[in-house]
Amino acid sequence: MAVTGAKVFPSPDAAPLSNVTVLIHDGKIAAVGPNVAIPPGATKLTCDGCYVFAGFWNSHVHFTEPKWARAATEAAPVLTREVQEMLTHSGFTSVVDLGSYIVTTSALRRRIESGEVPGPRIFTAGSGLYPPNGVPYYLDDLPAAVRASLPQPSTPAEAGVIVKQNIAAGSDVLKLFTGSYVSRGHVKPMPLDVARAAVALAHANHQIAFAHPSNLEGVRIAMDSGVDVLAHAPDTVEGVDDRLLAELVAHHMSVVPTLKLFADESAIARIRAIVLRFHQLGGRLIFGTGICYRLRSDRRIPPARAGRPVFPRRACDAHHSARGTFWTKTRRPSRTGPARRSHDSFGRPCIARPDGLYPGALCDSRRPCDFRETLIRGALHRQLRHRLRRHRLLRESHRHQVRHSRLLHGHAI
Predict the structure, then answer these.
(1) Mean pLDDT of 54-77
(2) What is the C-alpha to C-alpha distance for residues 84 and 140, in angstroms, rounded to an integer?
(3) Does the domain made of 56-348 have the CATH classification 3.20.20.140?
(4) Fewest Cβ atoms closer than 10 Å to its Cβ: which of 152, 178, 245, 405?
(5) Which CATH architecture has domain 2-53+356-382?
């Protein structure tokens, strides 16, 4: 396939290339440039007046909605539509699932990898690990048997058994709740020796470790146990200061801010300031939304937003906020070397690199939030159109672009 006449953004800090051709061969980018020879018989996609980006990563999603329980048996067209609505219509070609039922997520991944269902590459943590008797209160509506089955290791040996089970079931990364809200305002920490054991085993199996920290103690446990990525910014902010942020940077840790998740928190201004300061100190930020961890049954969400992502899922939001802070493309979590100090596994995209990075969103330059196509493994994924919501999404996108721009330039919000 050849995408012709495009304006290509090779990386967030490189100048765009105008009127070039992107040649895709065997699902990978073979060449990018103004004078690329197009083989006879290649499919041509004329891209006059549109932008081409490397496929976006969403490094914090959840396949926890009831519909994913049917992933193994649902009709392919239905499952395709559901994947499009959640991810590919926004240009996401790779996602990291940080907590779901691994049996159903693996079934979804198999159907995508087989080509039966078009969709992104999925890396999954399977079930996260919670502190002893530390399942979060916002999961209270789960059936008692399900809550009891969630892993809550109290010893390093128990943590090791659970991590091995996750790996055997097909997990790619580790997710820990180093600080878990067992009730409003009350965070229960994971024992440090339990966290260390889980992280050490994950790293020994070339997995990256993510942590949900919640507060200062949760951040310190994550850092001291060797966690690579904080899955959220801490939202209980007391004691989180420049010294702590500098320690995180020194430990080569990354952060997935998920700022919209905390939009209604009273401390949101301080949370934003923490994220900005971490970035200013040299910390690496990774784009992720936390999409679909909250469902309609959660009464804390206004009905108009329940069941939809709590961060704008339009991929253009990610692109426009990408400059230096929220760039959405990360490389695949390493499976070929130790994950410790693996922050370099989360790098900038390069659309011409030969490591399997996929071309992603083809975006109309006149309507920068209207993604025309998503290409995955060299195949076009026609986008669903949400005409009734389009203008609202554009307005929402603009508001968040302005907020992120102010964040990046240090303005108070």
Answers:
(1) 91
(2) 30
(3) yes
(4) 405
(5) Roll (2.30)
